[in-house]
Amino acid sequence: MSDPRNYDSKQILQSFLGNILVDFAEDSFVTIAWDTESFTDKVGADGFVVRSRQSDNRATITIRLSQRSPSNAILFAAHKADRATGRGVGPYIIKDLGGQTLITAPNTWVQKRPDVEFGKDAGEMEWVLRTSNADGFIGGEIL
Fold first, then answer.
1. Residue ranges in the chain assigned as alpha helix (H)
2. What is the pLDDT of residues 19-60, one digit of tens each?
3. Are the C-beta atoms of residues 66 and 100 closer than 8 Å to each other?
């Protein structure tokens, strides 16, 4: 019987513009979705298939923070500066310290501010970031 694999959400490190992001939402707290398939293909009338490698590495990064996370102020300040000066573009990094996944995106910006909502219990803030060039390695646990 093989040993069980381990995962610890506290071992997922995220940074934006050199700031470590903290105090994530209760459940799923980050999603990275690439815009384009790595390859497209076409088939000719005779069944011959040609693949075309796509160079588009744009991605959407959705980060969900606790409503009281100090990282909300970091993301808001970056967004406000970007709207005022165009200088809110910089590196985003996510690293699984207990595994092999490392994704870097040198040119990332806040695309959309979160909706603001208050209720009986503390809620979440969902930040949408965009990048022109996300890349890295996706792997499992380090053995």
1. 71-85
2. 999 999 999 999 999 999 999 999 999 999 999 999 999 999
3. no
What's the pTM? 0.90
Residue with tokens 């992001």: 21
Query: What's 124's domain CATH number?
Result: 2.30.110
Q: Looking at the DSSP assignment, which residues form a beta bridge with residue 59? A: 34, 131
Closest C-alpha among 57, 71, 58, 59 to residue 29: 71
Beta strands in 17-132 (DSSP E): 19-20, 30-34, 39-43, 49-53, 59-66, 90-96, 102-112, 124-131
Query: Cα–Cα distance between 35 and 97 in angstroms, integer?
Result: 26
Contact 68, 22 (CB under 8 A): no
Residue 63 domain-assigned (yes or no): yes
Give phi and psi for 81, each to the nearest 5: -65, -40
How many domains, the chain? 1
The predicted-structure confidence for 60-113, as pLDDT tens digits, reads as follows: 999 999 999 999 999 999 999 999 999 999 999 999 999 999 999 999 999 999
